[in-house]
Design brief:
By secondary structure, the protein is mainly α. It has one domain (20-543). It contains 15 helices and seven strands. The protein has helices spanning 42-64, 71-97, 120-144, 172-196, 201-210, 219-223, 238-264, 291-318, 334-347, 351-371, 377-430, 441-444, 462-487, 499-515, 525-540, and strands at 20-23, 29-32, 148-151, 156-159, 226-227, 495-497, 541-543. The strands form three sheets. Strands 2-1-5 form a three-stranded mixed sheet. Helix 9 (334-347) packs across helix 11. It is globular and about 70 Å long.
Amino acid sequence: MPLMDPFDRNRPDRKRFRPSRIKTGNGHLLEKSESSGSRTPYTYQLCDGLTEGLLYFVIVFTPWAFATTQSWSIWTLNLASYVLGGLLLLKWLIRWRAKYRPPRWGDDAHVQNILTVSRAPQVATVFLALLTVLVLIYCLVSALNARAVFLPEQQRFDYRDYVRWLPHSYDQASTWNALWNYLAMAFVFWAARDWLLGKTARDVRELNLEHPAPASEPPDEAETFAVVPSGPLRRLPSRLRCLLWVLCVNGALVALEGILQRLDGTNRLLWLVEPRFNKVPATQFGPFAYHANAASFFNLLWPVCVGFWLVSSKADGRNRYSGDRMGGRSHIVLLPCAILMAASPILSSSGGTALVTIIIILAAAAIWLIALYREDPGKRIKLFVLHVVVLVWAAYFGWQHFREKLQSDKMNVLVERTEVYTNAATIARDFPVFGTGPGTFGSIYQLYKEPPQKWAAYAHDDWLETRITLGWAGLGLLISMLGIVFFHSFFRGGIPTAPEFVAMVWLSLFGCLLHAKFDFPFQINSILFVFILLSSILFCSSQAKEKRS
């Protein structure tokens, strides 16, 4: 039998378009005629499946590959991200060629223009896409319009002619590397968003179970019955649930390995490799050679894990049969995972990130107490006591290592950080508009340090380092992108999620941005990847207030 072209709209096995019903939040039934009821092209299904598998692979790979700080691991992440981008482009091509419109969250309301929906989400998406392209063009121009090439063997710069009023770079090779990394993260963001917004058959079934079709509906029309939810979903969509499960369980396993490694006292990462820097066990944690980066990684994950647990526990609490089916009550596993990851920043003996963790814990406690205000008081008390006991134990155990670290190198660290901050502030003043070029801090720092001072690869202040390398122009673009991502959830459209889940994602991102003021989490690809992935989840979500009965 000859192979059929998946783009052929006249294939004999393609379903004819037929009207289906949509139920709005007010209970009205609307007719729609569009291609969402047609069979999904096989190539499109294959692209979706490969996207899912690659996302899971990268989530698991990045922390265990020694935090993705070596060239081989960085390029593995980049190549996987480029494949994600290629799959996204192929899916767009299939939609255009086959005139295929897949069922997606947030698109149900565009049926014959009957429902009134704000155009703000579409406008925000277009602006964010334009800003993404502008940032990549900014880095490309900086690399092409290089002011100098840094020669590391000779520790000098080879200066070239350049256009002064365009973005430029003082280390062309480093800027090219930064451009490839930024391109990879852009593909991750948009590929994850496109995949998460797709509705699966399981999502439609769960919606129809919550809002069943009227008994008078014929069987063929009841199969295509769909719902436009007016409030938050009882359960998160299946794709988002699977992605969060992989994130949470993998993060808990990394935390467990780090705790066991700390108890063992070895200075080899994963008991395999002794790092080039930070050879003392107190400055390491798990696969991370720098304990502060490990703490930032866990602070990104555990609030999201708590938010996932809150939404899942509420959903199973409403369904009295959830404990009877296989997999029911599985959300209870999330709470130990969250506690392991929340304790790890304190166990890692990092003073600054431990302070950030305490701030996040207080904010998270307020969120989950508000979210559970109508639940059994005993449940809230048990949750509170469990967190206090585990975190007090973590603080006691972590303080032993932290005290030893303070006694050994407190003054040296303070002196070195002060020198780096002073020199970095001078660089920022000398290159205010376009900066020195993406990824060039380590090279340009050679010109500003005094002979007895040590060389610094990072400024230990990602906000300041970004201002140095990208200038106010590039930093303004990035802040605009962050603003769109953070406030997009206020718009109607996308995945209608509970406010407490959105608040927990906000908290995760805010904690990382706060930690970036006195360290360099965004220079570590494994942390940057998780930050981008959570930003994509937040950009897909929209807050929906729960109706009170």
